[in-house]
Design a protein that fits this description.
411 residues; alpha/beta; FAD/NAD(P)-binding domain; seven-stranded mixed sheet; six-stranded mixed sheet; 13 helices; globular
Length: 411
């Protein structure tokens, strides 16, 4: 097989997972992180069977599940009270299967602790600005430090704003405000359900249970609000009271939650892009996760795709042949699934984030009724769980053992 000296740029989910998998293969791995102390960015996310399958291979499935909320249903309705999204994991036909709502910090913490326990070097305070080939390999360039040593391979896990790709395009008009709040003990929300409310496709609010945060034990949820990027400044000027009134008008049950929001700083605006790097591999360089392919979070696949990318890369590097052939094999392993979900996300995003009335009308009058007729429920469940296209079999990943993984989840 042959071992490589590998640099990984970015201590996100993609980078940490790749570091663990590659170190276990015997490669020398160094992680480079721009912050003085690695930390996650963001609020809640959904772990699907695809992502959990990779975590199970790392021996982290039970640890991660213990700090998550099992989600059995994704439910959304419009201002007329009509159900326009109803995806149930039971329609996958496998007992016990669910999504896992989790705070990004809990997933990050499990992976980061495993990286430290494995003795993987983490170089902090290294803000990557680029990379360059030398006669000895590829090295990373930093904003305020000397370049890294030359490595056999650089893995780009820097996310959607990576400086290791050409000029960025594909920014979507809509993003979202996110905040993390304490779970209301006697509130109106179901602890096993991701819920959303829509006013056409112009307004969308959502509540995602995220379980008991790792390190604090606080039972939490993620609240999100769809917002155009070009009106974020106007939103700040209008103030919290105006926003709260708007959200409560759409979803009155959120009034109690909003009592926890006292400062705009509690809300983080996330902007999304839809792009796929045409050349995810260059000489001694590969992009994974959002650095390769990014999309809106409407199908909730970002973290799961990053986990699958890291697994595919490790699988390919564990083979034989020259490095460039192994990198090409990694892209081949993931290419069809990436293309499929990029297409699906582009297709469905306007139905939930758009200024036009037509996407919401098609969603409510055509797609929603069809999703309730066979084989619609099964197709929908496979799509939201990331299983469309059969990625587990292609990557040689076993189906997650949900009964074992869920044993430590608080009831």
């Amino acid at each position: 097989m042959g071992n490589f000296d590998i640099a990984i740029a970015g201590c996100g989910i993609a980078g940490l997972t790749a570091a663990l998998l590659l170190r276990r293969q015997g490669h020398a791995v160094v992680l480079y992180e721009r912050f003085d102390e690695p930390r996650p960015l963001g609020s809640g996310l959904m772990l699907q069977p695809t992502g959990l399958a990779v975590l199970a291979e790392l021996g982290l499935a039970e640890e991660v599940a213990a700090h998550s909320a099992p989600i059995v249903r994704l439910y959304g309705c419009n201002t007329h009270g009509e159900t326009v999204l109803d995806a149930r994991y039971a329609d996958l036909g496998r007992p016990g299967v669910c999504g896992l709502g989790i705070h990004r910090a809990s997933l990050f913490g499990a992976l980061h602790d495993a990286v430290l326990a494995a003795g993987i070097a983490v170089r902090t305070g290294c803000e990557v600005t680029g990379s360059e080939l030398t006669s000895r390999g590829r090295r990373l360039l930093f904003a305020a430090a000397d370049p890294s040593p030359a490595h056999d391979l650089v893995i780009d896990g820097l996310g959607v704003a990576t400086p290791l790709t050409p000029a960025k395009e594909g920014w979507l008009p809509y993003g979202a405000l996110w905040t993390t709040l304490a779970w209301p003990k006697d509130g109106p929300f179901r602890p096993d359900r991701l819920e959303q409310r829509y006013e056409r496709a112009r307004k969308m609010a959502g509540v995602l249970p995220t379980g008991r945060r790792r390190g604090t034990g606080r039972n939490e949820l993620a609240l999100f609000w769809s917002l155009r990027a070009d009106v974020y400044g106007d939103w700040r000027e209008r103030g919290l009271a105006a926003w709260k009134d708007e959200l409560v008008a759409l979803w009155p049950q959120c009034a109690g939650l909003l009592e926890q929001v006292a400062d705009p700083a509690q809300l983080t605006f996330a902007r999304y892009a839809h792009r796929t790097h045409r050349r995810p591999v260059a000489e001694r360089l590969i992009h994974i996760g959002d650095a390769w392919h990014s999309a809106s979070p409407q199908l909730g696949q970002g973290a799961n795709m990053a986990l699958l990318d890291a697994w595919a890369l490790a699988k390919a590097l564990g083979g034989d042949g020259p490095l460039d052939a192994r990198l090409a094999a990694a892209v081949e392993l993931r290419g069809s699934h990436v293309r499929l979900y990029q297409w699906l996300t582009a297709l469905f995003t306007p139905a939930y984030q758009s200024d036009s009335a037509w996407p919401a009308l098609i969603r409510d009058m055509v797609l929603a009724p069809l999703s309730r007729l066979p084989p619609g429920p099964g197709v929908q469940a496979n799509m939201v769980s990331g299983l469309t296209g059969g990625p587990l079999g292609r990557l040689g990943l076993a189906w997650p053992d949900y009964p074992s993984a869920m044993v430590a989840v608080p009831r």
